[in-house]
Structure formats: C-alpha cells, structure tokens
Design goal:
370 residues; alpha/beta; nine-stranded mixed sheet
C-alpha cells in the first residue's frame, strides 16, 4: 500500500479503533497464570500505543508530505543512476550553449492527486546529473489565457527541506493556493513554480552539491531541471528570469545555487536557512571537513572570482536564518545584494507559508519577466 494512500490510512484507523476497544472488551476476561495475564494485557497496551503513533504519523505525513513513499521513509529509494565528476561548472566538460542546444527533453505531465489540475508531475531522467526523479510544475493562471499565448514566463525553483518532497511546497506550504489570487490581482507577477525531488540518497541531505561518486545534486537542480522546463514550457533560460527558493535545508540550497550560478539564477529566497552545512545533521557535505568548509556560504561568497550578480532574501528568527543573513550581508559586495529579514515564528511550514506573499512580492521586483 502507498505510504500516502487512502487504503493505508483507513487500515491504520481501523487498527487503532480495535486497539482501543480490545482492552475494554477482554481485559477482565483474560485467564491463566499471573505472568500470562500481565503479558497479554501489556501486549494490548503496547499495540494501542503503536497504532496511535502510527496513525498520527501517517495523518501528518499525508497532510505535509514529508515522505512520498516507503522508499523515502526507509531510505531505500534509488534516484542516482550515475555520479561522474562533472567539473566545477557541473556540465561535465560541455559548454552551456551545447547543453542548451542538445535535443529537447520532451516530458509527459500528469495531474497530482489532491492538488488540483494545475499542479502536474513528470519523471525526469537527468542526462547531465545522472539523477532520475520526479519534478512538480505549477503554471500560473495567465499561462493558458489567450491574451498571454505568446508570452514567456519567469520561473522560481522550489526546494523543500529534509525530510520533504516537491509536493511539500504545494501540500504543506500551499504555495499555489496562496500565490494564485495574488497573481490574478497583479500583486505578484505570474511565475511558473517548479519543485524537483530533493531527497536523492535515502534520508541524507545532499546539500545541493556535486559529490563525485555519490550524487550530482547541483547539476540536477541547476542544469537538468532548468533545461527540461525550458524545453516544455514558455520560458527563457536567461538568469535574470529565474529565481530559486527554499526552506530549512532547502533554504541553504537555494542561496548556494544562486551564489554558485549567477549565470543560471538572479535571486534566491532562504527561509530559516543557514550558512554552515554542518547545521543539518544528515548533510553529506558536512561529513568531510574540507567540503564543509568550502561549501559554507560565507566561504563561497569570499572565494567567488567576482561578486556574483545575485540578490538574496534571507529571513527567519534571530538564531534561525536572520543572523546567517546579516553575516552574508556584511560580506556582500556589489553587485551582490543581501536582504536580511527578522521574522517571528518557528521552524515550521506555517511560518514559512505566511512569508510567501512578502517574499514573492520581492521576487516580482527582482526576477525579470522574459
């Protein structure tokens, strides 16, 4: 049964009900030696506890979509088919123009259950990164309007935290539900929202990094997904028309992708992010001291050949994103721009969801329409 499907949820509800009723019915009817009676009654109590915990977990996961499958939960999902050394630009020795001119990656998109017809999913086989995973795409209301039939749209790539799936942005944060009326009213410009799979190696956090022999997560997000979107929708691949946003571990990724690739993104939104990848316990990057040092956002900004032409929005509570933003702001040199926003709220989906109108208003002024 699917981890997020109705049959499993219904089964666990039924088992939980049985676990509650069973002791009420048979507790006083248990017979045998004292040790046997204690063992049976203890087993009933344990069964009730286990089913109650399972019910809460499955209900929350169905609502927030932290884990999309049993493979995600157990860390057995396989999404990396190859992980060669692709070089510092993540293109594997190819020129950006060669990648752009490669045969089109034409995809089939299917509606995602429970998210309305505008959120669609496809399975992408990343030819550069060696990653094969799902990508969710939401098209703004103007996309199918005849008045906009010749118009290209800007894009924001959405990266979830760990654990989390592409669906987390839509089912957990409800990004499309919050932003659609703002786009219709003109308060936010119409963006195409793209949320690729981020959990590529079990439950580990890849840090959106290319780690030869393990995973090429950077190239997955910044090369393969971008090309697929450009090949299937009315968008430009110009950096000025692309932004990237993330929360928690995804916030670190969003800021890092923008700093590393000003030729691919012009802006990043970091909600409760951090600069040191070691702040995420499951980070693969943090397992190697040298990788941890070189992938620290402060060190990336210092080591850049020239200040990257990107704008960063970094928000959160004082110890949960805000101070990371002020640290980067102190290092930033023009044309890099860093805005640090102190907010009230915890490290949770509700807090990040409430920030979407403000952050997408900022993106509307920063990311340009093609």
């Amino acid at each position: 049964m699917s981890l997020t499907g109705t049959p499993l949820f219904a089964t666990v509800i039924a088992l939980t009900a049985c676990a509650v009723l069973l002791p009420l019915i048979v507790w006083s009817k248990v017979r045998g030696p004292a040790a046997v009676r204690v063992a049976i009654r203890t087993s009933m109590m344990v069964f009730a506890q286990v089913t109650a915990v399972a019910l809460v977990f499955i209900a929350v996961n169905r609502d927030m979509n932290f884990y999309a499958s049993w493979g995600d939960l157990l860390g057995t999902g396989k999404y990396v088919t190859a992980a060669p050394d692709l070089g510092p630009d993540g293109l594997g020795g190819k020129k950006a123009a060669e990648v752009k001119a490669a045969p089109k990656v034409v995809q089939d998109f299917q509606p995602v259950e429970g998210l309305g017809g505008r959120v669609k999913k496809t399975e992408l086989d990343g030819k550069i990164s060696g990653v094969k995973g799902d990508v969710l795409v939401w098209l703004p209301p103007q996309y199918d309007d005849p008045a906009f039939k010749d118009k290209k749209f800007p894009v924001v790539e959405l990266i979830p935290g760990i654990p989390g799936t592409g669906k987390s942005w839509f089912q957990g944060l409800k990004a499309h539900e919050i932003l659609e009326p703002l786009m219709k009213s003109g308060k936010v410009q119409p963006f195409i929202l793209v949320s690729p799979r981020a959990m590529l190696l079990g439950n580990a956090d890849t840090g959106c990094a290319n780690i030869p022999g393990k995973v090429n997560a950077d190239s997955w997000f910044s090369v393969d997904v971008r090309k697929m979107v450009a090949d299937n929708f009315r968008v430009s691949q110009e950096a000025r028309t692309w932004g990237v946003a993330g929360y928690s571990a995804g916030a670190y990724c969003a800021a890092k992708l923008a700093i590393n690739h000003p030729d691919r993104y012009s802006a990043a939104v970091s909600l409760s992010g951090y600069n040191d990848p070691g702040q995420e316990p499951s980070s693969l990057v943090a397992q190697d001291p040298e990788l941890r040092r070189t992938h620290n956002l402060k060190n990336l900004l210092k080591a850049a050949p020239a200040p990257p032409a990107v704008s960063l929005w970094m928000s959160g509570a004082e110890q949960d994103g805000y101070l990371s933003g002020t640290d980067l702001k102190a290092l930033a040199q023009s044309p890099t721009v860093v805005h640090a926003e102190k907010v009230v709220g915890g490290h949770n989906l509700e807090s990040w969801s409430k920030q979407l109108p403000q952050t997408f208003d900022w993106l509307s002024k920063t990311v340009k329409a093609p």
